Each structure stands twice: as structure tokens, then as C-alpha cells.
Give the backbone structure.
Amino acid sequence: MPRLYVLTQTHTLSLSTAKVFSFVNLIDSKSLTKPHTLQVFRPPLMAVPVDTITKPTPASSTSTLRFAFGNVLAFFILLLIGVLAFSIRLFSVIKYESVIHEFDPYFNYRVTQFLTKNGIYDFWNWFDDRTWYPLGRVIGGTVYPGLTLTAGTIWKVLQSLNIPLSVETVCVFTAPVFSAFAAWATYLLTKEVKGTGAGLTAAVLLAMVPSYISRSVAGSYDNEAVAIFALIFTFYLYIKTLNTGSLFYATLNSISYFYMVCSWGGYTFIINLIPMHVLLCIVTGRYSSRLYIAYAPLVVLGTLLAALVPVVGFNAVMTSEHFASFLVFIVIHVVALAYYIKGILSPKMFKVAATLVVSVGLVVCCAVVAVLVAVVASSPTKGWSGRSLSLLDPTYASKYIPIIASVSEHQPPTWPSYFMDINVLAFLVPAGIIACFSPLSDASAFVILYLVMSVYFSGVMVRLMLVLAPAACIMSGIALSEAFDVFTRSIKFYISSLSESLQTDAGDIVSGNSASPQNDAIKTDKREDSLKERPSRKNKKKDKEIVEKPSVKSKIEKRPLVLPVEASFFALFLTVLLGAFYVVHSVWAAAEAYSAPSIVLTSHSHDGLHVFDDFREAYAWLSHNTEVDDKVASWWDYGYQTTAMANRTVIVDNNTWNNTHIATVGTAMSSPEKAAWEIFNSLDVKYVLVVFGGLVGYPSDDINKFLWMVRIGGGVFPHIKEPDYLRDGQYRIDSQATPTMLNSLMYKLSYFRFVETDGGKGYDRVRRTEIGKKYFKLTHFEEVFTTHHWMVRIYKLKPQKNRIRGKTKKSRSKSSSATPTSGTKKNPWH
Amino acid sequence: MAKFSIATVFIASISLLLALSNSFSLENPTDRRILVLVDDLALKSSHSIFFSSLQTRGFELDFKLSDDPKIALQRYGQYLYDGLILFSPTIERFGGSLDVAAILDFVDSGKDLIVAADASASDLIRNIAAECGVDFDEDSSAVVIDHGSYAVSGTEGDHTLIAADDFIQSDVLLGTTKIEAPVLFKGIGHSLNPANSLVLKVLSASPSAYSANPKSKLSSPPSLSGSSISLVSVVQARNNARVLFSGSLDLFSNKFFKSPVQKAGSSNKYAKSGNQQFVTELSKWVFHERGHLKAVNVRHHRVGETDEPAIYRINDDLEYLVEIYEWSGSSWEPYVANDVQIQFYMMSPYVLKTMSTDKKGLYHTSFKVPDVYGVFQFKVEYQRLGYTSLSLAKQIPVRPFRHNEYERFIPTAFPYYGASFSTMAAFFIFSFVYLYSK
């Protein structure tokens, strides 16, 4: 509650009646530095420089100077925040190299290369025949083009400025650049909610929040890199429109929303969160024309613009994710009409009209709802996409869509991951919520709503922790800055009272001065109240006053919270310590936890640093030793990398749009050799690539993913049954493993010749066990390449046998008769 | 300078010779150099008619004893011969570097082979046969006996000389002239796996034949009996190498060629057995003088264009052309058939069409690309009895419409256009009136 007072207190100062000004001046003359910064950092809600400039008062010349100084300072702080956000993400480049990370970024990189080479129209119409063989993929229509277009534009601009950066360099550094933008956007958003100080704090926090770093280190060239900026900026513009009621910002908001739609599928978060907030405002009686201006153009323009993005298209009006916005759109119009009618009718007439409208409206609403329900119910997934459904019902994916559940970032997070990803922010957030409630404005209500929703979503999918991170930063920024505010003010008062008590006639002045803000506050409040009651339909300032109203109203009979100075100092020290811990943790996370490109791995051991560059070794082998049109089959995780780095056609990749196709590959991997050979041969596959970590202890290898292949394969081809691969419900590869498991292609390709590496033991360092079947031969596949650390193994499908053998006396097994078998005559299995 | 040019010419001519001698090529698939391995050089004269027929057709025969230590099929990685005739049924071990594996490698590299066994066939020969899918009777003393259709001769023998006339019905294998006289056969039988699609039974035994030791009494049912016994079989490997297996070496002999034949129970008496015609025609097939197809000039383009596009669009009309020729022994002749089909294939055929031919070797058809995008293949899978298999696959992607290839204005949507434009106009008028009235 005291924080509330602080806000209104400074607010009063900025309104700058002569008396207040003299008070400020007095303090200024006493202690020069502290109040300055305090004042500058805490401009109240409405005390944006515009105000001071447009409404010059006697006090304005000095305070303008102070604001100017503060603005310059804020500008440089923001600049430094940008530098911080950028540079903290460079660990990956410094520690490793300037290289694209992980899986999806490789696809984005490939798309960007295509864009820079062929131009935007070819990109739009790009039909890629090198993935999803033989189905192909319409890249232009299935990709969120925001990131690619952004990087492509940056590259083009740099080229035209004669700065010859490679596309890869631009791609690598796009994410850090945009995280600086995101920090600035956070500043703007938080400033709209709680003022500059909170804005700067939130921006600092966001610049180095580990959750966001994990997605935006240099090289992590993924949609989220630009989408988080777009998300925050869209929210900022929404709040800005809400606060100003300006159509200009509303239009900008739609355009920013368009950019977000271009960038990331997470735009549905925006188009659901904002309607929720609007509904909340309406329900709590906060409807205003500003709300209408903030919302209606966004729905109309935003939906139109969203439909322009090929990947969204008609989804913008057809899928359930967007229905909430339309529903609220109707509601807000009904409410607007009601307010309008209320304004022109007498109260009695209005009552009559209300009953009429409500009865008619109910009928219409029922009809519309019935139609909607009918339409939605006719679709099997009720109009929701699988990912959205798994958000609403966290158990949905694991029950019905193994392909979504199989992705580690779609799993619910563990508690430690909250501490890992947002660290101390998790503890500051509640304080921030309280600060937002005092006073509760439209903007702070929105931030609270944003936080609550994102906490829920992050609890469902670990990936959406990323959406929580900005909310947590904003909240913590508010909390921290309010805390600083209280502490520094306490200290400031202590110092001023101290210095004044040194003067001879100290006592009176101090008491007089310390009383004056209160009086002022009450006085101003009365003025505000009278303003409010005045019929001000034509008054342009009306909206602003309504914004001020809640903040001002609630500060009646508040006394400034002045803590004991020792407590203040101690608390200040603890807060700074907390911030220091956060910084230490963030830097550690940036440097150690989230910088690994996952294409190059390192490990520290007693004899120094080991670098595992097996992936690139394997892809380079593929690109140098296979035909251009050869098809490479692997589990879909490696699809993007194979197309981008080896430039070979793949069967499935990380864009998991066709479940059947992935299930086919999963089935092949789960089948015995011969059946797998037939499946792969029917897909014209020449090479099979498996990732195997058993030798060096790389845990995310194909054997550990294998159960998902079984599940996904079994979902489409029922002859693959998960229990066949489990011994008493346990997944194991040792001698207790089931025969189905030991005969599956994945087992064989992973452990072929593995026993030779450690002299007959066959000890798998990931599963920490000896493998079950050590000596076996491959009949339908031949090993063509295994990387240095055995992390990637490439096999070639043997061609069909040139001749078909007859049965001979000496042969150990009868040659299979019905189908032609492959394998050479040296093969002992024939 | 002159020296230099002479050297150049020399090198050029050598390389030309090499190129020519590398005869199993697309341009000239007929074999030229054949190694004949015999147990006894006397065979050279006793089977001279067969050999001379080969020589008159232009083959160079190189006779060697099968245990000659100098036998080598290849030198410096190059094969010295294009064909191999094994007329050495009794050999247990070849001389030189030759063994089963070498012979199989020879076949696997596309060379042709004729193997003749007889009652004394060694394990070596049986192994070679088994590797190719031909299983000679495991009982080493068994020969084919037929009390029903033996060849009538002066003395009442043990009916091991068979007059077989159950030929495979194929003009490609046996020539267009029908073989009238039965073929004399004396030797061992073999069986084939019916599921083996690569091996063909050219000469079968009659239903009354069986395989047993003629000198001992039949104690148990014979392992091979009836028309499932194959007397002569051919194999066409997947790489189109051709192999002939005969259970009788005498089949190729002058004696059998010339001897008159009368099948038991038949009054037809032929002055000359069918052996010569049978063997000659079959050897023509084995040495690729017949039934060898090639497909060239595969082209496809949109109807009305001539350039081959890198990608098609859905619903394009396209034309596909291919030329197919058959080797006649000396030149490529147009292959004429009405059953050559083209598939437009993506995991399953979306279009399957029989191509029409202009009788000069050119096959063509045109069709509409289906309304499905993806990576398709033009596939011609032409496998006919006796012919080399033609398997053409050409990958071609099919893309969806570009963004500007859709119709811009659809007539059925005119009400919507009208609605939106009238709304725009109405809104403009409304704004004007609202702002500037009063």
C-alpha cells in the first residue's frame, strides 16, 4: 500500500503547483543529487514529458531541464541495456564459434539463404522437393516468414551499405540484436504501466533473463528470437493505445500484431490475452472509449493482416483459437452501444430500452452461439489445433498425439526449471503483483492478466516459459523499483531531515515541509474529483483524466511510508544483493548452460576439454560422398540439419506436419532389418543415419528417443506395439531386453560393431549397462560411415541381390523364397 | 614431332581398341570373346558344330583345359572375356585363380555363362548352379530317366536318352522358327524354385520322367519327378547377365546334333534332332544377340513446348517420350510392342498409361499431371519374358500453383465483391455526412 502513495506523491509533484515546486526546489537546494535521480526515475503515470511540455506552468522550465537530464540518462541506460542484452548472448560465439545452433535454426538459415538468393516471390512460392520426400513441402505456405524476412532485410540493407556480411553471420546475430529490441520494448511497456524507473529495471531484468537467453543466444536463429520482441512490443502498443486512446497507436498495434503473426505461432496468445483483458475491463466496469479504440481496430485490422500471412490464411477466421477475439468484439460493441444509449436517453427510458435490447440481444446471442457450437462441434478436434488443445488440457497430447508429447520442450517443466529460467524473479513476481494492484489501472490489470496466463501456460509446456519470462521481468521490475523507491525515499527523508535539523530553525520548516505534500495531495485530489464530475464530453483531456483518476483517488488519507533508515539501508543492501545473485546466475546461464550450439559438443574431463564435432563430420561426409539426389532417412530431429548442412533429401524433418510419414519412418526403425529395408526401399532411401551416444555418453541419442518412434509408429501402424519393446514395463537394452527390441533396426544400427570398441564388453555409457546382443551381422544394411566418437552412424541400404540362390546342401539356412533378398554371398545369414 | 604423333596415334588406337573390346556396352551388347573350359580337348572336335556356329557368328573362342594353371578371367581389373562356357562337368578345382567366387563375380559384373553338366557333375559345378538358383539333383548318381518319352534307338537301353520337346513358349529365347524335332538329352535333371523370378525353365522333362540311378532299383520315391524336372534352364540376373544351365553336355555334341530322333510312342521320325536349332538359338539369347533392349532419349516436356522443365505444376499437360531399341546381333532395331507402360509415381502410381509407338522405336504418351504436388517419378518398368528388364526412373517435382496463378476474380464471388465495395463506399459517405453535416 505505501507504494501507492509514492506514486501519487511524485505525481503531485509533477503536476507542479507552485507550492509543490517550492518544496522540490527546497529539497533540491539541500541535497542535489539524490532527489534528482529519484525524480527522474520515477515520473508518474501521466507525467510523461509531453505533458510537461504541452502544459507549461511556472515550474516547467526547471522541471523540463530535470526531465531532459533524466531522459538523457535514461537514454544512455537504455543504450547500455541494449549492449548488455546483445553482449551477454555472445558467449556462444566466443566459446564455440559463429555457427547456427540446434535444429530449427538450420531450417531458418536455409530458408534465409533461399530468400537472399531468389527473392521474396520465389520464397513465397517455394516448393521444397528436398524434404519430406516424396511429398515435398510448400515452404512458402507453411513457414512463419517473419524471422526470415527480418534477417533477409537486414542482410540486404547491409549489402546495400556495402557491408559484406555473410547470410550466416546475419542469422547468427539476429537473435541478440532482437533481444536488445525486446529489452527496449519491455522498457516501453513497463513505463506505460508503472513509469520509467520500473521500465528501466524491467528492461535490465529482461536483457539477461536466462529463459529468454536460452532461446536467443547468438546462433539460436529461431522464431522466438524476434517473436518475443514482437510480443512485448504489441503489448506495449496495446497499453499505449489504452492509455492515450490514439488511433495512431491502435494502427501501429495492428501492424505490430501482424509482425508477430508473421513471426511465431504464439501470436494466438496475444489474440486471446487481449480479448480477455478487454472482457475483464468491461466486467469490472472499466469500459471506456479508449478501450474500444485499443481493441476494435486490432481485431479488424489485425485479423485482416493475419489472414495475409500464408501460413495462417483462413485460420484467422476459422479456428477456435481466434474465436475469443470475435466474441469479445461483439460484446464490446454491445457495451459501447449500451453506453451510448445510456448517454442520450433519460434513465427511465434507458431502463426500458435496456430490457428490450437485452431480451432481443439474448435471442440473437443464443442463435449465434448455437451456430458457433454447431460449427465447432462438427470438427473432430473442436476446431482447435493439437498444440492448443494440449495447452487447454495438459494431458491431451500425451493421450492422443505422441508426436507433440515426444518433443522435450512440449513437456511440463519441473520446479527447478523455474528457478533455472527465471531465478529470483520467481520470488519478486508476487511483490510485483501487489504493486500492480495499488492502484489497479487498466494497464496494470493487463500486466497481471498476462502474468497469470503465462504462468499457467509455462506450467503446461516448458517451451512457453519463454512467454512467462517477459511477464516475470515486468512484474519484478515493478517490484524492485517500488522497493528501491521506498528505501531511497526513506533515506532521502532521513538525509533531508538530518541536514535541516543542522540548521538553526530546522524544526518548523521540516514539519511544515513534510506536511505539505499531504496537503497537496488532498488538494489535487479534490481538483481531480471536481474535474471528474464536470461533464466533459467535449474535453479532449477527458480520457487522460480518467486514467489519472484511479491513481489519484486512492491516495486520500495516505501517509508517506518512511522506513527507519537502518532498515532502509539494510533492505537496500539485500535488494542489491538479490539483484547481484540474479546477475551472477544469468551470466552463468548464458555462459555455461545455454550457449552450447548442440551441433558441437564439449565436455570437460580430467585430461582437458573434449570437443565432439561429430554431427558436422557426418553431414560433411554425406555431402561429399553421396549423390546429390540420394535420400537420407533418419529420425525427424535431424531432418533440418541434414538438408541444410549435407544438402541431401530427407524423408521427414522437424516440421512435423505429416504424422503418417513420420510414423512410417518410426515403423521402419522399430521393425526387423528386412521389413525396415522394404519400407526404406519403397521410399527410395539410400542411406540411414542414426545418432548414437553410447560410446561417449551423449544422452539425447536415438536409442533414448526410440520409444517415441515405437509409439508414433504404432499410432499409425498397429502391428508395432509398445509392450513388445518393454520388459515388464521397463525400457532396457541389456540382456533382459525383449527379442523385438534386440532385433529392431534401431538397436542393430546403433550397436553394430559396438562391442569392438571396448574389447568385448559392449558397455553403453548412456544407459550404463552392457548391451544385450553384442555380436550380430547386418544383412540388408552396410555401415558406410561412423564418426570419430561414434555419435553419428551412417548405413547404406544394400542393393537387391543380383542372383537368387537356390537351396544347397551346404547352406545353413534356406534362402527366403517368396521375396528377393539382398545381401552378398559372403553373408553368413544366408 | 612425327614420333610424338605416332605415339599419339598408337595410344589413341589402343584406347580405341580397349573401348571396342569392352564389348558389353550399351552400344554393342553382344559378347565377343569367350573362354571355353573343357575337361578334355577332344571335346573341341566332338562338339565342333556348336563351336563353329559360334565362331561363324563372330565370337572368338579361347579353348583351355579347365585345370590349366594359366586360366585367368581378368587382368589388371579388366575382364579378358565377355563370356564363359564351362564344358567341364567333372572338374573339382579349376586351375589358376578361377574358383566359384570368381565365376560368380564374372556373372555379377554382367558377363554371360554357359554351364553344361552331366551324370558325373562335380560339386564345383553344382555349387555354381546353386548360387544361381539351379539345383541339380543332390543324388550324384541320379540321371533323368523317362520310360514314357525316351528316344527310340536300336537297342532297348535304360531310357536315359530322352527326347524332350516341352519347350518354353518364347520367341525371344528360342527364335521365331518353331523347333519341330525333339531335343535329345542325356544327363542329370535339376529343379528350380518356382518363386525365383530370375530363372526360367527352357526345356522341361515330360510328366513321366524321374531322376534316379538307372543301375539300382528304386527303393524310395525319386526326389525329382515329372515335369518339375528341368533339363535346360536359363537365368537372367538383375544386371541382365545371362546364364545357361544344361544337365547334359551331350546336348551340345555333334553326335546328338546329327542323330535322327524318334520319340517313343510317336510315329514321327525326324532325320535330325532339334538339338542344333535349340542350342544355337539359345546361345544367341545367352550371348545377347537377341532380347536385349535399350531405352534412350527419355524426354518429357509440357505439351506445346520442347524444353524439359525442372519442375512441373499441378494440372500441367505433359508429354513423355522414350525410344526403345532391341539388339539384333549386329545393330539396334526398333522394338515394337503395345504393352509399354509409363507410371507417374509417388509412392503409388497416380497415372498409369500404355504408351503408343510409331513402330520406329519411339514411344510416347501425354497426360495431365494429377492435382497433387510432390516429388514424382516417371517410371517405366518393362519386364517381359526373355527380354532384358527396362527400369527407367526419372525424378521430377510437381509444385502447387504460384500465388499469382490463381484466378484473380471468380464470378461466383461477385456478390462478395459487391458487398465489400458497397460497404466501403457507404462508410466513406457516412463519415463524410457525420463529420460535415450541421
